[in-house]
Amino acid sequence: MTVGITYREDSPQIVFAVERLVEALREIGENAEMVGKEQLLTAGGIWIEESGLEAAKLFGELSGELQPEGFRIISAQREGRPLLVVAALDEAGAMYGTLELAERLRGCGSLSEVQECVMNARFPFRAIKFNLPWSTYRRNESFRLQIETIRDLGFWQRFLDRMAENRYNALTLWNLHPFPYMFRTANFPLATPFSDEELAEWKRYWTALFRMAKDRGIETYLVNWNIFVSESFREHYDGEAISDDTFYHYGDSYSTEQIKQYTRESITQLINEYPDLTGFGISLGERMNDMTPEDRQEWIKEVYFEGIREADRPVKFIHRAPFSVDPSVTRDAIESSDVFEGPVWVEVKFNWSHAYSSPKLLLTHGGSNGMEGYWNPPPRNYKITWMVRNEDFFTLRWAQPDFIREHIAENGQEYVGGYFVGSECFIPGKDYSHREGSPHVSWTYAFEKHWLYYMLWGRLLYDPSTPDRVFENELDRRYGSPTGNQLLKAYSAVCKMPMALASFYKFTWDFTLYAEGFLSTGEDEFNNGQAFISLQDMLGRETFDPSYLSIRNYMNRVLQGESLEGYTTPVQLAERLEADAQRGLSLITGLSIKSPTLECELCDIEAWAHLSLYFADKLRAGVSYERFLRTGDESERRKALSWLKAPHAAGHWDNLIRVTQSHYHEQPLLHLGATPFSWERMRPMVQDDIAFVESQSSAGSRV
């Protein structure tokens, strides 16, 4: 059977979605052809209508139920044949509606079985945070090895395709100083180190990237770190040149009138030379340690705001909330400005660098107090956008849809415009963790391996009511029915581990927690690669979530006879972790492995389960050891040893090594500096816990 389709052929966004729709039709045994609207309305088919006006004449007014980027799928009959209409108010809505229709066709297998629906975007800003591997904020081999991949437009085509399919609508590209890679300024030509030929190649790259994004309904933003200039600028225009070793993101202000002029002119030139670039963003506070809040904001106004004002067109703006500033200074500057197009997106780090801790907002960047001043009273011309930073798992796949839904429900107030999803320490380009040549590898890029992670966040940010069945269907499509239901439930159970660890083990900045490695560098960078969370670390650390009790606070309450009501105790947390791990393992036991890639997914689920079991038994060991210290009861020390040894904690870690060695090798990890990471490398530290408890005696107890 041939299905007629009518759509606007001059819309790149709709054309992109129709290509996916045609693929879906082919999968269910249907061919597709372009037909005129009149023929389609007579004989049935698929009509994609992005203005909403014509569909409204036939099917009723749409403006009352649809919002920007929203859509309605209508099912009707013409001469006994189905007519499916995707009605929207804009091209983005038509694109998303067409993608939804393709998905529904794959699920039901027939045009006549497609169910009607209305969907609107929950948030207007649904962004990926993507750190570029050049002029980097962080420095590590894990960034250097990504340069070739991220310079390849083939990578970006696939990445942007996946973004659009998952309903993301903003790509934010971050590095210290982007301008030398994009153009040569008239007044500071030597600030750019590239030849004319090299610069022309860079310009082709950026122009194509921004256009590809626009063709998929994705806005693009460049975000930098304020008072930074290139090495070439320092060499040719600054008499007090600073070496790269000292010119880094953290430090006192580095500003001259020439730097202000160069940055201001660069902003203007950037906007004028790249018309498909949507906007720009700044990180107020970096390289400004010695400046007052007022001086910092004045520098931004004098340089960035004025550079935007001088441009030929308005742009959108991302303003990171300063982490050590009175909110009134920044919000006054934004609310009194008239240089921006649309609302300003004010970015706030959710629970600092570890959003996978709690859906409750307990901490912001720098541990700032008073951040609520950004949203109370409600802002007039900006929206808060939560930065969901992931510095906690880069290798193991993660999927926990209920955490995302709870996060959105808890933090989706009227003043919130949306979310950023991404990492400072991981670029999802080249996959450098998996063993080369493995039959597991059916993907080219890391983001394709982590496809479910990106799908969950994107689809739920667009519509938090999206049911688990949507994700289960995609798992079924990849691995065969009825795999999806068990797989998603297994992931959902074992992937609670990083949130449990982050709620229990207090953290601050990026490297103070890396959940999948059970690592924390403390407050000192890298710590010579010795970052494993020891039993002593757990005993001495407070909890992040105040509703959790640390081991010592728990023991205080137990020994003093105080109530435990309303708290999650270490014992309860251990029981919950073990139950989740066992549930996850039971769900994947007996699953028919129909592909090597499915085997890879099952290995990741098993790895999370062993991490959960290890954490659970280490908590139990900590409770017993702390009781020994308080009471001198030697039997409690023996219990602690039992929990730490195989088959308990040490056995679980050995199982973790076994399952991860089957498909992963040592890899660079920013948290450890030059020291590579693997779970096997941490085994001596697992044994150190045992040796520590064995070396203690009642003579050293805290009775």
From TrEMBL:
Keywords: Hydrolase. GO terms for molecular function: hydrolase activity. GO terms for biological process: carbohydrate metabolic process. InterPro entries: Hex-like_dom2. This is Alpha glucuronidase N-terminal domain-containing protein. It comes from Paenibacillus cremeus.
